[in-house]
Amino acid sequence: MLVLLAGIFVVHIATVVMLFVSTIANVWMVGSSSFGTASSGLWLLCNQTCEQLSVSSSNEASLKAVQAFMILSIIFSVIALVMFIVQLFTLEKGKRFYITGAIMLVCWICILIGVSIYTARFTGEVPESTTSHHGYCFILAWICFCFSFIIGILYLVLRKK
């Protein structure tokens, strides 16, 4: 049981780190053109220098929603990690980590909403690029989506022995 708890803890920490990286770094979409490679993220557009990401007024609310949901997912993931540590030392034997699992599933929903909005509204949109593809931050966000669901379910069914 100790090995299972340690494994879940390590995967949870990896999920938090990947959420930070995917939210902060600006490589959600990568495009190439005759001027070189450009990447855009949630905050900046980087070609050779980085500048504020400019979006149309119809997409501005969508971008703010993606930013908000990704930040919320980080917050809920960190809260779930702290709650896991607290419950690990305060729960009696045989109890389940219901609160931690529920918070992690809220994190999962936030990632789902944020990345889904980004996929629907911003896929393939890198200014002045001829070809574009998803960057590593976008892929990390989907990996975090999978990990947070698995961790949330494991917390719900996990008993402390």
From TrEMBL:
Its main location: membrane. It is found in: Membrane. InterPro entries: PMP-22/EMP/MP20-like, PMP22/EMP/MP20/Claudin, PMP22_EMP_MP20. Pfam families: PMP22_Claudin. It is a multi-pass membrane protein. The chain crosses the membrane at residues 7-29, 65-85, 97-118, 138-158. Keywords: Glycoprotein, Membrane, Transmembrane, Transmembrane helix. Belongs to the PMP-22/EMP/MP20 family. This is Epithelial membrane protein 1. It comes from Corythaeola cristata (Great blue turaco).
